[in-house]
Amino acid sequence: MSGHCCDHDHAPSATSSPRYRRVLWAALLINLGMAVVEIISSRLTGSVSLLADAADFMGDAANYGVSLWVLGVAAVWRARTAWLKGLSMGLYGLGVLAVAGWQWWQGSTPEAASMGLIGALALAANLSVAALLYAFREGDANMRAVWLCTRNDAIGNVAVLVAAGLVMLTGQAWPDLAVAAGMAALALTGGVSVMRQAQAELRWEHGGAEAHRTHGT
């Protein structure tokens, strides 16, 4: 993470941008739509990586909604919200690992062709959202969390496509389970990154408030 990610001078103008608000609304609607598609598709194909991706889409839609709510509020509340979003990313990662373990225990194999088709659709959706959010990737912790979620989703979609091909070639479930575990690792590391930046911003805000009180006295 670059050092200027915690630079507060850039946050107010970026987070209050009407363009950023429109981008978040578009991202929210795209993610909600893909969540519904992948929930249905995961049940039809038996793919745990698609189920994990559906949960990720739903979580991202919630994140975008929260991000819209915190636009224009004090920096300390943006940092606190980002910390909670980082925590949710980590919990999502743990949940995916649990689902992958259960699927491995069950021993079922997903339907590869449909899995690949839905994975390609999800990749197109995430690339469109990533393109919209790219200009805002270096804002405060809250904006950083939004960007990381979208970036991780695009990486995960490519992995789902690879897994679908390997499932088709091998006739086994392990590629699907491996991708689910990889997506969990991305969520865990991304969540830790966001939480650390949010903590740094909270310390910065607390230090500024203390200095103000000391100067005032």
UniProtKB/TrEMBL annotation:
Membrane topology field: Multi-pass membrane protein
Coiled coil feature spans: none
Pfam assignment, any one: Cation_efflux
Compartmental location: Membrane
Transmembrane segments: 23-41, 61-77, 89-106, 112-134, 154-171, 177-195
Domain of life assignment: Bacteria
Protein name: Cation transporter
Organism of this sequence: Ideonella paludis
